[in-house]
């Protein structure tokens, strides 16, 4: 629902102040009640003040009319963060039984210029609920477009996830995750989306069915960029709540050892090894050998057990987290 | 956290100059290390992958490159090797995340390099908190905001809170008449059916309600505290409660962890939290903890610093914190502090000063939760049951003030361990990278100051300064405060982000209501 010719959209020179519009001639504008000594007062521009004064008049009167709808579009254009205006607009749309597809076009336009705004995305959810499953693909296309501009936009991802779960469209989602991770394997939002897909997609059989191939995929990503935290976290996430399986999968400790061979101070690899030992992994000779080699180069930790030794190594090679690792070390002695 | 859209006393005497030497020395020691780390990380991708790096370095070398010329660092693998010059197409290209990260690291490294080139006494100057400038910037905002602030027209109680709380952290109070004006203004934002809107006449909203109530508590006068209509506020909150147990922000508004936190925080603070409001919230928040360990805005979304703070605090105030997997939450937050010394909001995102509070305070809170953490570690190692996997408790108590006690008792608890983040490094980021010379604080170098970041950078600074003490209100030792001891801010109650004595006054007031 695009605003009428009297709106602020389009050429500014055509803009007619509400006070000079015939269709608003009977409306008495309501100024903001800021009191005699306002605080955090905003020096509104005349255009903003006038539109809001007329908006308030119709809002307080509860007038659900076409002119009210136009005025809300104008107020939203001036400040898309005004949730009261959006709320009132929904009431008006319902009362007028307006064309909601047109409304979607309107909100999409605004979203493209203000992609990080709670109100806009909430309004879209409201519309999607009303428009139903037929709109799923169009919504997915839209979030793709927004994510092409900023692949980590939190609102866009939340919307996309909600549409998937409410209306579907899962068929190509894993492929989309692949594509985004190919473009930027450091994109943690894409990893998070991947986790949603493999755990929730009705086409993939769930985490248990996907785990094996996902472990391979993730290990490949780790080996290509061992300093990328996202796949390390994802790898652990694949075994969330399944410590026994995590321990039993030899690929997990193998990838840690492989990475440590090239970079003996890789914090993520050391940290994952530590987690494995904590949940009871019986260390292989290779693991023991790798850690022993690091211990030998440092007399301070020569006598420590394996997990403690890793903590001590981490305290040195990850000094920003020195307190974290020294705390972690205390939890070892209290467990084992 | 993008709270942009309604998103979301008594210092123990200043220290003498003897403290300065040791603080500067600490800063220097920890900071030298930071620069080295920075240089190592930022060097690799540049040297290895950028074709233009194969050229002889331009003279003078760019600051970031000069910084990298440390003899202790090994040369990047590709430089001068077989890959340079030939087969450049085979080299992995840098991704958007890497490029953006490198730009920030370079800017931060520039700043830290100046610090470590200085004599120690010059460092102390550089590490000073520019109190006067901040106070001026914040006080001015209370009286006048330019036309561009119209985008925050539905956030005016937030503007009040950001300014008033930041001033309170700096131990500054506006004139009494300005305080009265704020109370009057917020009363105009209070809806006749309860709750506060983003401005006079706007719909009541949970986030602006949080901002308004926190502002009034920070002002702390009888007039301010009694201006809150608690009966209607309670009714408003009940209306905002969804059947899932979670809260929506406003009538017909969005449901998320922010709404849950703001509702629970306000209800706890003004002592109207009961079983009716509390039921089901904890289960919703638990469902928002992700495989990474942090908490997301909604189930299945990405772990995020702002929501992690909100979710963790709401759980503490509900006395249901054992439903979260705390060891994995701690592990996630601890890794959000990066080479820039500040915190990022999500994995592989850029550092931002506001997360000094959201992430820093979340970790600081866990210093008082070690009994639960130990329990969870024990049970996860012995029974293989993942921590947090518990049946939902049912609310049984109808005792008045039952819930308000959790916030009160929590702050009385001792810290069972030291901070799990690097408190000096964090202060270094805030003081050197987030301060703006003309007053106010910012997200990161290259960004503009704003009131939101001023509030949360200072809140994070306070948390960091007090984090090493066993008791929440104990006076920090000089070595815990980076820069001159006069940098010390007021302590806060981290669950509500309100200056501690202001909280206590309000607690007394609302317990007797």
TrEMBL record, chain A:
Q: Which residues lie within the region annotated Disordered?
A: 1-24
What are the GO cellular component annotations?
CAAX-protein geranylgeranyltransferase complex; protein farnesyltransferase complex
Q: Where is the composition biased (Polar residues)?
A: 1-10
Names of the cofactor(s): Mg(2+)
InterPro entries in the record: Prenyl_trans_a
A GO molecular function term, named singly, is: CAAX-protein geranylgeranyltransferase activity
Q: Which domain of life is it from?
A: Eukaryota
State the Pfam families in the record. Answer: PPTA
Keywords, comma-separated and alphabetical: Magnesium, Prenyltransferase, Repeat, Transferase
Its EC number(s): 2.5.1.58, 2.5.1.59
Listed under catalytic activity are: L-cysteinyl-[protein] + (2E,6E)-farnesyl diphosphate = S-(2E,6E)-farnesyl-L-cysteinyl-[protein] + diphosphate; geranylgeranyl diphosphate + L-cysteinyl-[protein] = S-geranylgeranyl-L-cysteinyl-[protein] + diphosphate
Q: What class of enzyme is it?
A: transferase
The UniProt entry's sequence similarity note says: Belongs to the protein prenyltransferase subunit alpha family.
The UniProt function text for this chain reads: Essential subunit of both the farnesyltransferase and the geranylgeranyltransferase complex. Contributes to the transfer of a farnesyl or geranylgeranyl moiety from farnesyl or geranylgeranyl diphosphate to a cysteine at the fourth position from the C-terminus of several proteins having the C-terminal sequence Cys-aliphatic-aliphatic-X.
* PANTHER family (UniProt xref): PROTEIN FARNESYLTRANSFERASE ALPHA SUBUNIT/RAB GERANYLGERANYL TRANSFERASE ALPHA SUBUNIT, PROTEIN FARNESYLTRANSFERASE_GERANYLGERANYLTRANSFERASE TYPE-1 SUBUNIT ALPHA
- Name of the featured protein: Protein farnesyltransferase/geranylgeranyltransferase type-1 subunit alpha
Please report the organism this UniProt entry assigns to the protein.
Oryza meyeriana var. granulata
From TrEMBL, chain B:
Please give the GO cellular component terms listed in this UniProt entry: protein farnesyltransferase complex
Q: Which intervals carry biased composition (Basic residues)?
A: 34-47
User: Where does the record place the region Disordered?
Assistant: 29-88
The first-level EC class reads transferase
Skewed-composition ranges (Pro residues) = 54-64
Under Pfam families, the record lists:
Prenyltrans (PF00432)
The catalysed reaction is:
L-cysteinyl-[protein] + (2E,6E)-farnesyl diphosphate = S-(2E,6E)-farnesyl-L-cysteinyl-[protein] + diphosphate
What GO terms are given for molecular function? Answer: protein farnesyltransferase activity; zinc ion binding
Similarity-based family: Belongs to the protein prenyltransferase subunit beta family.
What is the protein's name according to its record?
Protein farnesyltransferase subunit beta
Species name: Oryza meyeriana var. granulata
| Organism lineage string | Eukaryota, Viridiplantae, Streptophyta, Embryophyta, Tracheophyta
């Amino acid at each position: 629902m695009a605003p009428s010719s009297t709106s602020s959209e389009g050429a500014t020179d055509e803009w007619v102040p509400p006070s000079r519009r015939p269709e608003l001639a009977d409306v008495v504008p309501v100024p903001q009640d800021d009191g005699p000594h306002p605080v955090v007062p905003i020096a509104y521009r005349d255009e903003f003040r006038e539109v809001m004064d007329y908006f308030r008049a119709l809002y307080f009167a509860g007038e659900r009319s076409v002119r009210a709808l136009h005025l809300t579009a104008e107020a939203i254009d001036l400040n898309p963060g005004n949730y009261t205006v959006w709320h009132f607009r929904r009431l008006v749309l319902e009362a007028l039984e307006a064309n909601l597809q047109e409304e979607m076009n309107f909100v999409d336009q605004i979203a493209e210029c203000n992609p990080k705004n709670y109100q806009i995305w909430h309004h879209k959810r409201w519309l999607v609920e009303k428009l139903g499953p037929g709109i799923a693909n169009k919504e997915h296309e839209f979030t793709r477009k927004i994510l092409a501009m900023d692949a980590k936009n939190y609102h866009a991802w939340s919307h996309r996830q909600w549409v998937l779960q409410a209306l579907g469209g899962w068929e190509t989602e894993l492929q989309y995750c692949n594509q985004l991770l190919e473009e930027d394997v450091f994109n943690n939002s894409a990893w998070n989306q991947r986790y949603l897909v493999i755990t929730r997609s009705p086409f993939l059989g769930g985490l248990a069915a996907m785990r094996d191939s996902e472990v391979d995929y993730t290990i490949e990503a780790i080996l290509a960029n061992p300093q990328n935290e996202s796949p390390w976290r994802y790898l652990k996430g694949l075994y969330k709540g399944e410590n026994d399986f995590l321990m039993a999968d030899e690929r997990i400790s193998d990838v840690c050892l492989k990475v440590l061979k090239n970079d003996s101070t890789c914090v993520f690899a050391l940290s994952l090894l530590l987690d494995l030992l904590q949940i009871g992994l019986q260390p292989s000779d290779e693991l023991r050998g790798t850690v022993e080699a690091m211990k030998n180069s440092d007399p301070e930790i020569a006598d420590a057990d394996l997990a403690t030794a890793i903590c001590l190594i981490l305290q040195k090679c990850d000094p920003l987290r020195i307190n974290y690792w020294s705390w972690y070390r205390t939890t070892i002695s209290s467990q084992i | 956290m993008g709270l942009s859209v309604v998103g979301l006393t008594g210092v123990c005497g200043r220290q003498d100059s003897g403290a300065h030497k040791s603080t500067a020395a600490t800063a220097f020691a920890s900071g030298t290390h930071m620069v080295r780390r920075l240089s190592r990380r930022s060097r690799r991708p540049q040297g290895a992958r950028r074709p233009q790096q194969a050229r002889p370095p331009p003279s003078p070398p760019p600051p970031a490159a000069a910084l990298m010329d440390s003899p202790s660092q090994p040369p990047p693998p590709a430089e001068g090797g077989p890959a340079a010059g030939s087969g450049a197409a085979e080299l992995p290209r840098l991704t958007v995340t890497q490029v953006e990260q490198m730009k920030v690291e370079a800017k931060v490294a520039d700043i830290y390099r100046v610090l470590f080139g200085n004599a120690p006494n010059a460092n102390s100057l550089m590490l000073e908190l520019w109190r006067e400038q901040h106070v001026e910037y914040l006080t001015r905002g209370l009286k006048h905001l330019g036309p561009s602030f119209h985008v925050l027209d539905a956030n005016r109680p937030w503007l009040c809170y950001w300014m008033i709380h930041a001033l309170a952290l700096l131990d500054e109070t506006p004139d009494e008449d300005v305080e009265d004006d704020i109370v009057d203004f917020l009363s105009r934002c209070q809806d006749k059916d309860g709750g506060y809107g983003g401005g006079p006449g706007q719909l009541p909203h949970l986030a602006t309600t949080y901002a308004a109530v926190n502002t009034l508590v920070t002002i702390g006068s009888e007039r301010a505290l009694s201006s809150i209509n608690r009966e209607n506020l309670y009714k408003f909150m009940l209306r905002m409660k969804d059947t899932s147990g979670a809260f929506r922000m406003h009538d017909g508004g969005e449901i998320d962890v922010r709404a849950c936190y703001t509702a629970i925080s306000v209800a706890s603070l003004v002592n109207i939290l009961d079983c009716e409001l509390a039921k089901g919230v904890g289960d919703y928040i638990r469902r928002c903890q992700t495989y990474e360990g942090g908490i997301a805005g909604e189930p299945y979304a990405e772990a995020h610093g702002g929501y992690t703070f909100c979710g963790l605090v709401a759980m503490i105030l509900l006395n249901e914190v054992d439903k979260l997997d705390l060891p994995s939450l701690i592990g996630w937050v601890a890794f959000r502090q990066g080479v820039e010394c500040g915190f990022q909001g999500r994995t592989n995102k850029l550092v931002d000063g506001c997360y000094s509070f959201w992430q820093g305070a979340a970790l600081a809170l866990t210093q008082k939760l070690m009994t639960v953490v130990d329990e969870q570690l024990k049970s996860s190692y012995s029974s293989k049951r993942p921590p947090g996997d518990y049946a939902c408790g049912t609310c049984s108590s109808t005792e008045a003030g039952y819930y308000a006690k959790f916030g009160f008792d929590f702050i009385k608890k001792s810290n069972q361990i030291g901070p799990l983040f690097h408190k000096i490094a964090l202060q270094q980021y805030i003081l050197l990278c987030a301060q703006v010379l003309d007053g106010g604080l910012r997200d990161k170098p290259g960004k503009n100051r704003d009131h939101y970041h001023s509030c949360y950078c200072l809140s994070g600074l306070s948390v960091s300064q007090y984090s090493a003490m066993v008791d929440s209100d104990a006076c920090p030792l000089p070595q815990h405060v980076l820069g001159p001891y006069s940098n010390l801010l007021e302590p806060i109650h981290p669950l509500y982000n309100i200056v501690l004595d202001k909280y206590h006054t309000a607690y007394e007031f609302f317990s007797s209501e």
